[in-house]
Specification:
This protein is α/β, with parallel strands linked by helices. 34% of the residues lie in helices and 14% in strands. The protein has twelve helices and twelve strands. The strands form two sheets. Strands 2-1-3-4-5-6 form a six-stranded parallel beta sheet, sandwiched between helices. Helix 1 packs across helix 12.
Length: 339
């Protein structure tokens, strides 16, 4: 087979969680067809942990795989024209919003993704929005490659380890707001009962106003920026609107779902709002969080069934997504470089 039939694939990521979504796809691409895994210098440590050689972002004409709108803008500026987008997270979107928030470019079906010719999606909700917005693009449901790498925890700790994680406070619509400030007292209360592990979106941990990292330190709560560490150690995860909650649940463990005050119960965006919200015990008041954690730890058969039903909505496939995505990317790239 000629070189034109063996396209080399580049990968570009500017944040650690995007690296984590893309790495399983990279490993599934045959070594001879791996091009440059491009990250900024400050992410060199993460690629070193994963055993992936780092390349500096640069111009080129190779097919390029990304996992975010921010990286789409970056590779566009580098002159890249053959672009595949792996939808990171669960593909949450806010289609019930009004105005530009309805089709924000970072979300499924968002505007200004016109130069993406392949969308790799976790589920039908995400895929259908991309198909509608960009009918000329190829859209494939592959699942979530990040699930391939998440640690499982075979036995419960004594006392149980309860992790809390929150999304950053994105002022896009009500449902993108963080529940961190509302539920901070519940974290302190839970510390009296269980071993607590603090986590959060990188932007929340570093936020100068919310200051999640400072809050955890001030209250003597161990914190980690590593979601893999959460998955290695936690017995239950408490979360607001973040894909991490579904990723943790996909490892077979219970979760608590925080319905923060800004989240409008009458607005139906899909997935987290509200078809797949019953992935865990739902709670809307901080005084009820302790009871919700206790119920989640019991993990009754009914709760397990509800978790599985929600996960079946969120993930088209629960295993093998890295290989599935790599196969699609290689097929797409070959179509771009005909004989």
């Amino acid at each position: 087979m000629g070189a034109r039939h063996r396209p080399v694939i580049d990968v570009h990521a500017r944040e650690r969680h995007f690296v984590d979504h893309l790495a399983p796809v990279w490993r599934a691409i045959p070594e001879a067809l791996r091009g440059d895994f491009m990250v900024p210098r400050e992410l060199s440590w993460r690629l070193e942990e994963l055993g992936i050689p780092r390349a500096k972002p640069g111009a080129g004409d190779r097919p390029t795989l990304i996992a975010s709108y921010g990286d789409l803008k970056a590779v566009r500026a580098l002159g890249r024209e053959r672009i595949a987008l792996l939808q990171h997270g669960i593909g949450q979107s806010y289609g019930a919003a009004i105005g530009k928030s309805k089709d924000g470019p970072s979300y499924s079906g968002g505007r200004d993704n016109h130069d993406v010719s392949l969308f790799l999606c976790p589920n039908e909700h995400s895929a259908s929005r991309w198909r509608t917005a960009y009918p000329g693009a190829r859209v494939e449901i592959v699942g979530c490659p990040k699930l391939d790498d998440l640690p499982r925890k075979p036995e419960r700790s004594t006392p149980p380890v309860v992790a809390f994680t929150f999304h950053w406070d994105a002022h896009v619509v009500n449902e993108t707001r963080s529940g961190f400030l509302q539920f901070r007292p519940a974290i302190v209360a839970a510390k009296r009962r269980w071993t607590i592990l603090g986590h959060g979106h990188p932007r929340l941990l570093e936020d100068r106003l919310a200051g999640a990292a400072r809050f955890y330190a001030r209250n003597g709560i161990e914190a980690t920026a590593s979601f893999e560490e959460v998955c290695r150690r936690a017995d239950v995860l408490v979360f607001d609107n973040t894909s991490s909650g579904y990723e943790f649940a996909a490892t077979g463990r219970p979760v608590v779902v925080l319905d923060a005050i800004p989240y409008r119960r009458q607005i139906r965006h899909g997935l987290r709002f509200w078809e797949a919200a019953d992935v865990g015990v739902r709670v809307d008041r901080r005084v009820k969080v302790i009871d919700a954690i206790e119920e989640a730890l019991r993990d009754s058969p009914a709760r397990q069934r509800a978790r599985e039903e929600a996960l079946s909505i969120v993930y088209g496939y629960r295993t093998g997504a890295g290989r599935r995505a790599a196969d699609v990317v290689l097929d797409w790239a070959r179509e771009l470089v005909p004989a």
